[in-house]
Amino acid sequence: MAEDSDPPRKHYQLKPREFERVNKPPGESLPGEGTGPIDVRDLNRQAYHPGATTPARPEPPAANDVHALLRANHERRRAAGLDEPAPPAPRRSRRKRDYWLILIPVDLFFTGVLVAPGLSVGIKLYALAGLIVFTLGFTWVMWFVTDDY
Questions:
Q1: Of 97, 99, 98, 106, the residue nearest 131 (C-alpha)
Q2: Which has fewest Cβ within 10 Å: 13, 73, 103, 107?
Q3: Distance CA 135, CA 105 (A)
Q4: pLDDT tens digit string along 128-144?
C-alpha cells in the first residue's frame, strides 16, 4: 500500500506576548526630558524655542511622599483607637405616633356613627363591626407585622 498523501499536521499556538509600554519605568526618562515635574514656563520656552530643553530637576526627597505620610497618620490613629467610628445613636421610632394619629380619628368616626340618633340598627351594627375589625386589624399590622421605621 502506498503512504497517505496527507500533509503533516499543523500545531497551532498562541503567538508570543507583545506588550506596548505606555508608561516608562520609574527612574527612566526619555531623551530630552527632565526627571522632575514640568513647569508651565518651561513648556512655553520650548514652544517658542524648539531646540531648548528643560533643565533636569532632582527627584523630590522621600520625606515628601504623600502616601507614606498618610500611611503613618493612619497607623497613629489606629494605635490611638481613633479610627473606629462611634456607633450611631438609635433613631426614635415613629410607629407609636403614626398608630395613634390614624387609630383615633377612624375610631371616632365609627363611634360617632354608632351613637348617632336616628340611624337604623343595621348601620349601627356595621359601625360596631367596622370599629372592631379596624382596631384589631390595624393594631395587628402596626405592632406585629411592621418593623420600626
A1: 106
A2: 13
A3: 11
A4: 999 999 999 999 999 99
Report the C-alpha gap between 62 and 73 in whole angstroms. Answer: 16
Query: How many whole angstroms separate alpha carbon 145 and alpha carbon 147?
Result: 7
User: Between the CA atoms of 116, 122, 126 and 131, what dihedral angle is there, to the nearest 10 degrees?
Assistant: 40
Distance CA 139, CA 1 (A): 97
Q: Give one DSSP letter per residue of 90-129, joined into a string.
A: PPPP-HHHHHHHHHHHHHHHHHHHHH-TT--HHHHHHHHH
**pTM for the structure as a whole:** 0.43
DSSP string spanning 3-59? PP-PPPPP---PPPP-----SPPTT---TT--SSPPPHHHHHHHHH-TT--PPP-PP
- Joined together, the cell numbers standing for residue 13 give 499556538
Q: Using CA atoms, how far apart are residues 26 and 62, in angstroms rounded to an integer?
A: 14
Residue 77: strand, helix, or coil: helix
The three cell numbers locating residue 16? 508570543
Residue 35 has phi, psi (to 5 degrees) of -95, -15
